[in-house]
Design a protein that fits this description.
six-stranded mixed β-sheet, Rossmann fold, alpha/beta, binds guanosine-5'-diphosphate
Length: about 180
């Protein structure tokens, strides 16, 4: 069964987005205490695919050994995983991606899993600021013209249909290849 994973730093809004996408309340816990989700969670959607919730990275109060543990977990998950179609990277629309975000995206590029970025908390910037914020993200992550960046607000429930369309396309094209 194909998998689509979601990655991003702690507090980026991943749990909120996954709850919205899966249309379930508190499927993924929204974090009262950031950096808590340390395991990889899988959610089966319609028998068609699985959403993979990768643990958030970059929480300042996490020790070095915990960071190393995170890296090992990611590596053992990512390596040799033909069912994984894509890792969607989440970044906060308001901020330039951090060094860790950039590293993460390079990592995904290395594995050929890059190409879709979600700019979270889109409600926090005005329509005027939006394009500028998006171009900062594009530039910092080094996105190409084919890469997609989708602003989403889990709070206002905007932009996620576009994301769902992308997921659908991914799943359809993987099904075509498999046939
Ligand atoms: P996670 O740590 O990446 O899973 O992030 P959460 O989903 O727990 O969200 C972190 C914080 O950001 C919480 O206080 C959420 O209420 C808030 N948040 C998440 N998504 C949005 C959004 O779309 N808009 C706004 N304004 N806040 C959001």
């Amino acid at each position: 069964i194909p998998e689509i994973a979601f990655a991003g730093r702690s507090n980026v809004g991943k749990s909120s987005l996954l709850n919205l996408l899966t249309n379930r309340r508190n499927l993924a816990r929204t974090s009262g205490s950031p950096g808590k989700t340390r395991t990889i969670n899988f959610y089966r959607i319609n028998d068609q695919f699985r959403i993979v919730d990768l643990p958030g990275y970059g929480y300042a109060k996490i020790s070095k050994s915990q960071t190393e543990g995170w890296g090992q977990m990611m590596e053992s998950y990512l390596e040799g995983r033909p069912t994984l179609l894509k890792v969607i990277q989440l970044v906060d629309i308001r901020h330039a991606p951090s060094a860790q975000d950039v590293q993460m995206y390079e990592y995904l590029r290395h594995f050929g899993l890059d190409g879709i970025v979600v700019a979270t908390k889109a409600d926090k910037v005005s329509a005027n600021e939006k394009q500028k914020c998006l171009s900062v993200i594009k530039k910092t992550l080094g996105l190409s013209a084919e890469d997609k960046i989708i602003p989403v607000s889990a709070l206002k429930k905007t932009g996620y249909e576009t994301l769902l369309d992308e997921l659908e396309q991914l799943i359809e094209s993987s099904a075509t290849v498999a046939r």
